[in-house]
Amino acid sequence: MKLTQSFIFEAAHTLKWRGVNVYDQIKSNTIHGHTYHASISIEGEVVAEGHEEGMVNDFNAMGLMTDFVKSQLDHTFLDEVKDLGRPTLENICLYIAKKAKLRGLCEVTVERKATGDKCTYEIRKTQKK
Predict the structure, then answer these.
(1) Predicted pLDDT of residue 25
(2) How many domains does the chain fold into?
(3) Rounded to two decimals, what is the model's pTM?
(4) Strand, helix or coil at 55?
């Protein structure tokens, strides 16, 4: 089974790149902001007993983790977020995956709906031999 929890954060960034035309270059190099829609997904089996009986994971625990990750990104200048690197959608997905310490983490998605841009990072578990 797969569980997903979503959150929204607002942040500004630059990309410091040479675009395909002068307009793109100016737009990307200038500080600008986006509304980001992110989601974290976990996979696992339903727990048979104990506190999490009948669940893959407790949504409250997932909520604490998404709140923590959101607090690292919301209303920030992404260029200055430690360990993020160049603030592309791809690097934001990788950053969230590193910060979201959840059992069974399998997917992170970050989307800018206003521009139609979306990145999904699928985390493949290595199989034991």
Answers:
(1) 56
(2) 1
(3) 0.83
(4) coil
